[in-house]
Amino acid sequence: MKSFSNKKVIPGYRFTCGITFFYLSLILLIPLAAFVLYTAGMGWEKFLAVVLDYRVFHAYYISLLTALAAAVINGVFGLLLAWVLVRYDFFGKRLLDGLIDLPFALPTAVAGIALTTLYAENGWLGQYLYALGIPSAFSPLGITLAMVFVGLPFVARSVQPVLRDLDPQVEEAAALLGAGDWLTFRRVIFPELVSPLLTGFSLSFARGVGEYGSVVFIAGNLPYETEIAPLLIMAKLEQFDYQAAAAIALVLLLLSFAILLVINGYQRYRVQKQGV
Amino acid sequence: MVAVKPHNFRQWGLIGLAAVFLLVMLVLPLILVASEALAKGWQVYLDALNEPFARKALFLTLEATVAAVLGNTVFGLASAWLLTKYDFRGKAFWSSLLDLPFAISPVVAGLLFVILFGRMSPIYPFLRAEHIAIIFAVPGIILATVFVTFPFITRELVPIMEAQGRSEEEAAATMGASGWTIFRRVTLPNIKWALIYGVILCTARALGEFGAVSVVSGHIRGKTNTLPLHIEILYNEYNFTAAFAVASILVILAVVILILRNLVEWRAKRGLRNGN
Asked: Membrane-crossing residues (chain A) (predicted)?
């Protein structure tokens, strides 16, 4: 069978191959190569001077910290949403289910101005938070809220199908053996959900690290306080300092790849350990 | 796993928590957009939408979206066909390249094109001599939009085409059907809904792309301003009512996209149940 399909019986191999490689080269490979060459051309000394600058370093720190916090919040609530939508029948369930994808459909700039107005000092929610002494806009909390918004669908949408396909008999067996609900969830159901949870978590994290549109309005963009890495790239571009922008961008790119690589690697390690 | 009617306090509590989370995070910002847009009455709202710059921006957004969706549909079909109908060396590498834009910040995506075609590029003198404007012009906006949206259609098509296998296409090929006939008569009916679904996701993202477009656009009003960028300008000029009025157009489009998305999913599921 293998040798049969190796002969490429279906016509169109060269045609589709041509289109795919032409398009990928034009959109992705040539721009990436030009970018790497350009950054390499600036030399180590200049590169390190830009990247290790305290303002830049702090921007990475804020980006990673807020994206991590948002991914954790999305992990918890994504799991809750998936659980509620799969396990229970209630009025309005289809509406809630459809709503989850809103952040994928709503332009980030719209989300950005809406969230900023909502959480500003005189905003609908901000007035109560500020009264409690919590600055909800122009703070790391505000940045996190925006990242929660844009990353919200990832975890729920990764966990939902896995939860739906779980075999009910396993749970019944656990119940027959005398396990309570919580024990069943912890020992029987949750281990099955770790993999999709991590997938959703890493997507949400990576999205948060690179997010710009929804964050730019609510961040306030104060250097050393609420300046995130994509904003700093933008600032360097506006000063026509293309080299600095490229250096910051390269590190941001490597950070995002590292996040995805580490989590994918861990997933593979888990699968191997379980011998699945 | 089977859904049950919630029957105790704890289950209702979970549902309530999930519903409140979605209402605060997703629904409240939408209500706020509508309320702010109409804060000064219908006349001001309609005037903000009728303004020539807003209309130009809407037109440019639609232009970039149509271009991106057309290009990405051709690429999506070709690449999904290539990845699922043939075996070749380096397939895993090429298919992981397709996920790259999800790990790249939109700001970095825009920067890639600025470096490739902008003033510091080695090909810039040639472009200038030929009067080809890419950066701070419409082609740059289209390229940036294509970049952030190109994986969507492929990612919807590959799993379903993988699941369908190759036997139907191989049978058709051995009976002498041409590649185009096989695609039109055998493959397309099977992947129709996944394709429409991918196109919807691609459209949604293209309509709202902000970061990448912002980097390459140059923000020239009436020329290189898309709707999301127009919102940013109005907002930064403290013209909040107009900003939210324009935003409300994008909210309406987002809601239409969500409804279409759910309809397509429902149709696709029904098709599967009928053994189609």
From this structure: 21-40, 60-86, 98-120, 132-156, 244-266
